[in-house]
Amino acid sequence: MVVSDCSPRPAPFAPLFPGLLAVVCVGAINIEAAQPVTVKAPDVTLDTPQTTLKGNLRVNGSVNATGTMMDAGENSNHYSP
Question: From CA 67, how far away is CA 81, in angstroms rounded?
Answer without folding.
Answer: 9
